[in-house]
Amino acid sequence: MGYHAAVARPAWRQATVLAVLASCGRNGFDAPDAIVDAPDATAEDGLVAWYPMESDPATSLSLDATGHGNDASCSGSSCPVRAAGVRGYAILLDGIDDRFVVPDAPMLRLSGGFTVTLWMQWLGGDAAVVSKPQAMGTGASFEISVLPQELLACTDDTLGPDGELCLERPGPPPPATWTALALTWNGALRTLYVDGEPVASNQHGAAFDDSPVVIGGDNHDGTPSSSHHGLIDEVRIYDRALTASEIGALHAR
Question: How many CA atoms lie within 13 A of 163 on its CB side?
Fold first, then answer.
């Protein structure tokens, strides 16, 4: 996957569309009885994009709830389907090629610092949960990935063919269980959080070009790769590094 490792809830039932669950071998779940709106985050300091996943994926769009217009479009042979999320709905991705893509915008070139947070369930495989891949090579300005042997949070400090440098936490999250992930970078120090707790940190840079943000996958030399198999909810992107207490509060169970 081009990695160079640095040595470095709420009581929603796990529900989804039955036909899709059957294809995953996970039957017997119900659709959510009601939708619980995510709290208003549009006024949060530094929040530039927020995907609560309440839009119907059949419309091929996941709307940016900040109002900045960074809407995500469905990409692949099919769109993700809706499932019960941490709050309201989530999206269920097939691990083959469905994903959401956010076109680049100046506010998404976060060269001064950033935070990327989300909730996810992992159903197996090697996958990027969210990334901003660079146009050339296997590097990404930022990327959070889950593999059977570890969690990775990566940045690449140069634009070119070389891959990124990654923070790592041994072991994947528990399968089919909601896990909160976050990567922060303050322009020098980057930190990986799991369920609101910091688990790895070091200093490394992040270089940005005009490539899109990908929710549910990655690109290598512009070609889609590393598609996520599982659920994703509440993706948020900030133009600053949130503090440990802010991450803890955001991902409190």
Answer: 15
Q: Is residue 114 part of a domain?
A: yes
Q: Tokens 């935070």 belong to which residue?
A: 115
For 74-101, write each residue's pLDDT tens digit: 988 888 999 999 999 999 999 998 899 9
CA distance 90 to 230: 10
Per-residue pLDDT, 26: 32
Domain containing 237 equals 47-250
Neighbours of 61 (CB within 10 A): 15
What 3 state SS string does 18-67 have?
Answer: HHHHHHHCCCCCCCCCCCCCCCCCCCCCCEEEEECCCCCHHHCEECCCCC
What CATH number does the domain containing 196 carry? 2.60.120.200
Number of domains in the chain: 1
Which pair of tokens denotes residue 198? 């910091």
Q: Report if residue 27 sits inside a domain.
A: no
